[in-house]
Specification:
This protein is mainly beta. The chain is built from three helices and 15 strands. The chain is flat, with a radius of gyration of 35 Å.
């Protein structure tokens, strides 16, 4: 026997909103990516895309000759004093104290038998660059200035900026003048509202209590939905639509081009080969004695350095920086530095066995591969 229907609408009532229709399967109610037709063609910004991705805007060729590079002077002092046994032991003690599972017995009772010096050179080249990219941006229109077409937009590298001091990274976003126009919101087609994603624009959804039947048990009408089989959608208060999240109900969008200016320090290091056994990666966190440094718009490679590998690395890196960064950005300043990084291998004995550790850098950091007195620790 069929159950009586308490409503003439049935369980399918409200499943299709006559204003918004049924969203296509797999599509969101509000498209987030604006169509390309939404943006005007602005001379000088033809490759600009929404959300970025249009590529770098190459800087123009210099209109005046830049100063020529100068050959770097040759330093004369290439050495630093070795550390003492007391300093070597103190450095190990500090290192062991930072480890919860290391005992200090080898530091107190170990006997230093020899200390070997493996000082090495580090060459560093830094190029401080400025790059400019553009992207279409949009925001709800609330009466902002609309200036597209009043006059031609300035080219990317003609727009004044507020640059930082050399070798201080910074990012600045600038709205390009004379690119702002008003368009209907692409997400809601200018309606200011979009279908509710919870109820697909219906304003109601299947009753959770009776699963859409209108009855609970036997002939008992469902009290939650009053026998309708559906209940009001709380997300949209039964309207079937919600305020458009893109235009925030304003129906129109202000579209414009943003210029993104980045100042960044591009850095490359070269560490001369050393036979101590210490991993080169350890040296990234320490400093050394500065032997030489110079900075100018354009650098010549280091010449006349006692270690030929440093001079070769300088020539290679200067050439690579010009090739990598001068095409899509403007090199504002270059700086090259040579440091002498102290590395001491400390050999010692403890309980009749031989061990060693490294002390390196101006910070006297320690590297130990096989510390002889460790205990078992459990991490809670």
């Amino acid at each position: 026997m069929d159950r009586p229907i308490a409503s003439n609408y049935g369980r399918s009532y409200g499943t299709v909103n006559p204003v918004y229709g049924t969203p296509a399967p797999g599509m969101s109610a509000e498209p987030t990516t604006p169509p390309a037709s939404m943006f005007d063609t602005i001379p000088g910004y033809e490759g600009t895309l929404a959300g970025g991705g249009g590529g770098y805007l190459p800087p123009p060729m210099p209109t005046v000759p830049m100063p020529g590079p100068e050959q770097a002077p040759t330093p004369t002092n290439w050495d630093i004093p070795s550390i003492s046994e007391d300093k070597a032991r103190e450095s190990l003690q500090k290192y062991v104290s930072s480890k919860c599972c290391y005992r200090s017995a080898p530091v107190k009772d170990g006997v230093i038998t020899s200390m070997e010096t493996f000082n090495t050179y580090r060459y560093r080249l830094e190029s401080f660059t400025e790059s400019r990219t553009s992207e279409w941006s949009q925001e709800p229109y609330t009466g902002q200035v609309v200036d597209a077409g009043i006059q031609p937009a300035p080219l990317a590298w003609q727009i004044p900026t507020n640059p930082p001091a050399f070798f201080n990274d910074k990012k600045q976003t600038i709205k390009v003048p004379y690119t702002s126009s008003v368009k209907n919101c692409h997400a809601c087609l200018g309606l200011g509202r979009g279908p509710c994603t919870t109820c697909a624009g219906a304003g109601s959804k299947v009753c959770w209590s009776c699963n859409g039947s209108g009855f609970r048990q036997a002939q008992d009408r469902c009290m939650n939905c009053r026998g309708l089989g559906r209940e009001r959608c709380n997300s949209c208060n039964g309207h079937g639509s919600r305020e458009c999240e893109t235009c925030r109900g304003k129906r129109q969008m202000l579209v414009f081009i943003n210029l993104i200016v980045k100042w960044s320090t591009e850095k490359d290091d070269f560490v001369a080969q050393q036979s101590s056994g210490l991993r080169v990666k350890n040296l990234e966190s320490v400093s050394g004695k500065r032997l030489f440094q110079n900075a100018q718009y354009m650098l010549y490679p280091i010449m006349g350095f006692p270690d030929a590998s440093v001079a070769q690395a300088s020539e290679r890196l200067v050439r690579e920086h010009q090739r990598k960064y001068a095409q899509n950005s403007r090199i504002l300043q270059q700086r090259q530095t040579i440091e002498l990084i102290p590395i001491t291998k400390v050999n010692y004995t403890w309980k009749g066995k031989s061990y060693f550790y490294f002390v390196y850098g101006n910070e006297f950091q320690v590297s130990v591969d096989d510390y002889p007195a460790t205990c078992c620790c459990s991490v809670m």
